[in-house]
Amino acid sequence: MSRALWVAWVAAALLVGVGCERPSSQKAKSAFLVRPETIEFGPSALGRTKVFKLKIANGGRASYRVEGAVSTVPNVEVPPFEPFVLNAGGEQEIEVRFTPQVEGVVQGMVEILSDAESEGLVPVNGRGVKAFVEVPETALDFGNVAMGMVEMREVTVRNPSDVESPLVLSIQGTDADQFTAGKGQAPTLAAGEERVVPVAFAPGRLGSAEAALHVVVCEGCEPAVIPLHGLGIASKLEVTPLRLDFGRVALGATAEQSITVRNQGTVALSYSGVQLLDNPGGVFKVVSEPVVAGGVLPAGATVELRVAFTPVALGRVRDGRVEVGVREQGSSAPGPKVSLAGEGGASCVTVLPRKVDFGVVAEGMTATREVQVINRCRENVLVSNLQLDTSQGGYFTLAQAPASVTVPAGETAKVGVTFSPRVGLTAASAGQLAVTVRTSATSATEAVSLSGQGRVFKPCQYDVPQTLSFGKVPVGASVALGVSVRNTGTEACYLASMQLSPGSDEAFSSLDVENRVLEPGQKATLVVSFKPESEGLFSGMAEAWVNHPTLGHPLVQVSGEGVKHCFAVQPTTVDFGITKLSCGPRVREVLAINNCLGQVQLTGLALEQVGNEFSAASLTPFPHTLPRGGRVQVLATYTPQDDGDDTAALRFTLDDGSVFTAGLVGRGVTKAEQTDRFFQESEAKVDVLFVVDNSGSMMEEQQSLGQNFAAFLSAANQAAVDYRIGVTTTGLDPSPGGWSECPGGAQGGENGRLFPVDGSRPRIITPATPNAAGVFASNTRVGVCHWNEQGLDAAHRALSDPLLYQQDDPRTPLANDGNGGFLREDAKLAIIFLSDEEDFSSQPVSFYETYFLALKGNDKTRLSINAIVGPTDLGTCPTSSSSGSRYIQLARATGGAVESICTPNWAASLEKLSNSAFGPNRRFTLTEVPADPERIVVEVDGVKVTDGWEYDADTNSILFERDAAPAPGSMVEVTYPLGCN
After folding, report:
1. At 772, is the secondary structure helix, strand, or coil?
2. From 443's CA, which of 54, 604, 680, 766 has a CA 20 to 30 Å away?
3. What is the reported pTM?
4. How far is residue 880 CA from its own chain's centroid?
5. Would you tell me how many other CB atoms lie within 10 Å of the CB of residue 707?
6. Are strands 828-834 and 863-869 parallel, antiparallel or unpaired?
């Protein structure tokens, strides 16, 4: 039973006079105390809530637990609170509220529910009093008012009684002297009288003015309080702004803003600088205060002051104030005041990492690392200043000129820092990089600590390959291979870095390898990806720097060929991910597929690698003749032996000498902890593929899908998503005809092509498509002529070569029936299956999961697979031919939504799918399996989040509740102990 239900049950029991004795075994030997001993509300106006603070204390030696509190008094309530434990000497405060509804005395008890030995009964006394004045508690804002002028506002008060009532008004607060209320009015209200009370603001000084109008509503009652706010301005003196709001600033960072003081008159003013009047927590500081000659601000002159805000705790700080000492000469009047506001939290600009450790660097060489400035704001920011300071040891320098750099919204700028050891000094070196970032309203400076150490090495003895060949790679596919530098000597080596050389073809990409020490026998690997966008030969160069006087710059020729071929290897890259050395081997599947019109002769299968971390095995002997449509399965195994990246090339050789390559990639680790970082996209691009069953029983479902298109687009329209929507069918081969014909030009055999293949309507729907709802409704009416549902194969073919990258399918006579232009590299992919039958595709579900994930770089946050299919329990869906278990398995494996094809409310079901496809990402799939889910730590924008999410073991992901989904632009970090999978 939940705590709230239990408390409610206890309250009900008390009201009917039923008691419940707690077991004596649960009573602690403690001393239950409350301060004060009686809750005295006194007179309280009817309908208004009065709050009493009650302290619960433990005066004994043993602790006791407080579960909740209930009241026997009508209109007295204790707001729910989390149970807590009071140790000896401890105390905690709770609220008790009284909202009388009738006149008269109210008495009773509040019971504190605890396992303390003594009963927690606290007497309550109060008295409901009918108010003799009613007044709305609405704040009055007078806006900007020039010095010497008066601005008026009104408050309406009413005497609801049948006798004359006093009207008692007072103004209280810091700037009460600048406000007046009810001057010249009678001090009483006649029975039933309603009166308009004027309130005036006459600024006597520049800047923000705050006060409050207090109205007595009944004898002994708390007054009604109406906040008052105004801003004093002057025509001959301009101070802008009169309120500095720094917004949210990350803890440890500093934001700066300026105050401009301009003498717009014809006479000089005296100027004595600036003074902080209110500085709660010491978070504000005047960092720039120009001195003017003779303390005089000439007519037309301007000075700029700068104030900094450095929060020390989360949450909004109490407002501060700064006084600018500018006034008429000879006057002693106070100067204009500027209010200061800010909030401690997480900035939308993040500088990572916070600490850069270069490790050991060889004397005479350097190491360069990158610091990222990540802009998650909705506006561009400016990296305006880079300041490097070395506190001890070697030399820290910027890898590029310290020029200002604009970082567009949602993008990242990189700052290179280089460390050079000092000759003869092997002690640790330390320094700091200060990065100043400016937005339109604020500037903030964040510090990155730097460290490194110099060391003398003997010339490196190493081995590196001369070439790296990718062989033939299908256009649009990606293969990852590695270049390894191995220390073959008996002494440690220093590797400064590895990278692709500038000028390499853009089809090649890599992440640079940072400096490190290679012990004897160790290797460092540069993982290079090759993704040809067209047919032809491509070339590049990989380079490294090691400590050797004459052979310190090894070069490796990189080559590959983009082809359009009917033979394929899938996946082209097998990523084993991060593997703990103690977890044992991981096994993945690779398929060689013959899509040619005739047979293909495979003459050989070879595994190339540096080391022996990978192995490959096939039940098929080589050479082997692969018939049309045939497949060869190869099982690849990864068993890491040490920390670091490992790669291998799995080569398939055809009888014409062509070599097709599958890359094997993995990383071995001994560490016990993993941190995954995710960025919540702020402007989404989503490509949606509907796969619609075109069998004979699907007519009503197709119509319901089309008619509820608006419900499906609800989340997309709300978030202004840039979408592309296409439809294909579960049919691969044309229907031979019979009782029903299918429209669209393919007789139900779309074979993955977007519907309609004859181009009679737009095949890709975007926000700019005229009458998009009507087009989609027509595109979902794919017909009911087919009988063989192969939805997973259809989706696979729709999103693979040759359809995916070509405007025309070369295998058919129809023109422009390819799917080129549908899938975007930078967009999220959503696939939605609609069927009342099981899937009868050719491959296991794991094959399709691997393939669709590979399309999105194995980033599970960029893939959403969903299904409206026959449910597992067909008793709830009698019109479904069978359960769509394979669709359900794939959807759940990728964290998608599953709905029943018998849904009574298509709009609600499609709205759920809309949230899955277009809404803020709520599911963040971890790269590895946690060893202990209880030790998972989730942070959003640097703030630890303890509720609103759960770990889903089935999908190995963090799932946020819908209302707790991280906002667009947020950074989500999940830290957990590594396990095995």
Report:
1. helix
2. 680
3. 0.49
4. 39
5. 15
6. parallel
